[in-house]
Write a structure and sequence with these properties.
β11 and β12 form a beta hairpin. The protein has a domain of about 110 residues: Mitogen Ypm (Jelly Rolls, Sandwich), CATH 2.60.120. It contains one helix and 15 strands, in the order αβββββββββββββββ. The termini are far apart. Strands 8, 9, 11, 12 and 14 form a five-stranded antiparallel β-sheet that branches. It is mostly beta strands.
């Protein structure tokens, strides 16, 4: 076998070139490893599943320009790694979960997700984040972190959740139906300056041609859910000598009333304010004309912070 002596003395020189179905040789890198380059690669897992075992140095998947799409099989996709890094391409990374939901189980050392420069968007009709035993840490970029909950709400379950706001602050925008935070058994601790938009109430009414000198009660207000409130009464009468007497009354039941502020005389174009020093459930103003011959018109304002 003289012609095959080269195989005996230099077995490394025995090489085989493999061609694909299109008569094109398969590519290898400088180390002789197989390289797969495709503008549209489809890998269909067999019935019993597909297992990809990465070398100790790690596994690198570089998606093509148009993006990488992974469609999990019916029974789900399982990726096991002691150190998995997913770097999104320039046009973003899209993960579409099946109808049964997407489950990510972090390794023992925790899961770290670093968003790209233009932000990370997670769209879900029902997203549940369950933190591991050692807690869940979300570190927002310098530009801030924005979480928009889906229609049916966002649920985060954690035995120890720490949210550290970036330098420029943390903003939580609640949906129209409101924001509900259920604290864990051992309580919820919020550290730092907290700012909230204060809801207000502003009700006004005009009472014209008042000639009754005995007095008439005005509308009753339930002030139980109002933190601070004030009545403002303006005498908007046309006659220069038209004067009004106004007082503030409060009640615990809306039936029995007591004068909190005694009668105050308000001249034409005059203003008087009424604030209670005693907190009861109901409040109202009581007004009358000083002279029945001089009709009075009053503009009554009820304003407060809820």
């Amino acid at each position: 076998m003289a012609n095959f002596k080269i195989f005996q003395d230099n077995p490394d020189q025995a090489k085989v070139k493999i061609f694909g179905s299109n008569n094109t040789a398969l590519n290898t890198d400088s180390s002789g490893n197989l390289t797969i380059t495709s503008t549209g690669l489809a890998i269909t897992a067999p019935t019993n599943g597909l297992t990809v075992t990465a070398p100790a140095s790690g596994l690198s998947v570089t998606p093509p320009t148009g993006g990488l799409s992974i469609t999990p099989p019916t029974n789900g996709l399982s990726i096991t790694s002691t150190g998995l890094a997913v770097t999104a391409p320039a046009n973003g990374l899209t993960v579409t979960a099946p109808a049964s939901g997407l489950s990510i189980t972090p390794p023992t050392g925790g899961l770290s997700i670093t968003p790209p420069t233009n932000g990370l968007t997670i769209t879900s009709t029902g997203l549940a984040v369950t933190a591991p035993t050692n807690g869940l840490t979300v570190t927002a970029p310098a530009s801030g972190l924005s979480i928009t909950p889906p229609t049916n709400g966002l649920t985060i379950t954690s035995t120890g959740l720490a949210v550290t706001a970036p330098t420029n602050g943390l903003t939580v925008t609640a949906p129209a139906s409101g924001l509900s935070i259920t604290p864990p058994t051992n309580g919820l601790l919020v550290t730092g300056a907290v700012f909230s938009n204060v809801a207000t109430t502003d009700v006004s009414a005009v009472r014209a041609n008042i000639t009754d000198t005995a007095g008439t009660p005005d509308e009753t207000f339930n002030v139980l859910g109002t933190r601070t409130w004030t009545f403002g009464v303006v005498n908007n009468s046309l006659a220069a000598n038209a004067q009004a007497l106004v007082k503030l009354q409060i009640s615990p039941n809306g039936t029995t009333w007591t004068d909190e502020v005694a009668n105050t005389t308000i001249n034409q174009n005059g203003l008087a304010t009424f604030v209670s020093s005693i907190f009861l459930k109901y409040a109202r103003v009581y007004y009358s004309a000083v002279n029945a011959a001089s009709a009075v018109t009053l503009n009554i304002f009820f304003q407060g912070e809820l």
